[in-house]
Specification:
Keywords: Membrane, Transmembrane, Transmembrane helix. The chain has four helices and four strands. With 138 residues, it is mainly alpha-helical.
Length: 138
């Protein structure tokens, strides 16, 4: 399981570092200042840590082990909550290019980020470690 979690962490970090850099143009600022590469690096580390924690839970519990799509749902729910908190406390602000999810009023890109990258990292780790998960459950 440790090997799987290491694969999840490093894969999640790479995917999230790319995602953070690509969608950084959708933000005005971070905590009142410029969005730097260091901020994006730290954000990707945080994202990878959250995804790895979720993966550890999913790999320990019997029901979701063969259902990596649960990672998608967990990631989206966590991300929406994080966005609500960050926007309410002024941690960051969107520019006019950010597509918003109606009624939730959070950005589409950050709302799906942890779900998509978490699912990808978990599926990659399961495949790399020759898990018993069938492609049907992915």
């Amino acid at each position: 399981m440790v090997r799987r979690l290491l694969i999840v962490f490093f894969t999640a970090f790479l995917l999230n570092f790319l995602w953070e850099n690509i969608h950084a143009v959708l933000y005005v600022q971070y905590q009142g200042g410029e969005i730097t590469r260091l901020i994006l690096f730290r954000a990707a580390l945080f994202d990878a840590a959250v995804i790895t924690l979720f993966a550890a839970l999913l790999l320990v519990l019997p029901w979701p082990r063969a259902r990596p799509w649960v990672m998608l749902a967990l990631g989206v729910v966590f991300a929406v909550g994080l966005e609500w908190f960050a926007l309410a406390t002024g941690r960051w602000e969107y520019n006019t290019l950010m597509p918003l999810i109606p009624f939730l009023n959070v950005g589409l890109s950050p709302a799906i980020q942890l779900g998509v990258t978490g699912w990808g990292a978990l599926v990659f780790a399961l495949i790399r470690t020759k898990s018993g998960a069938s492609s049907r459950s992915l």
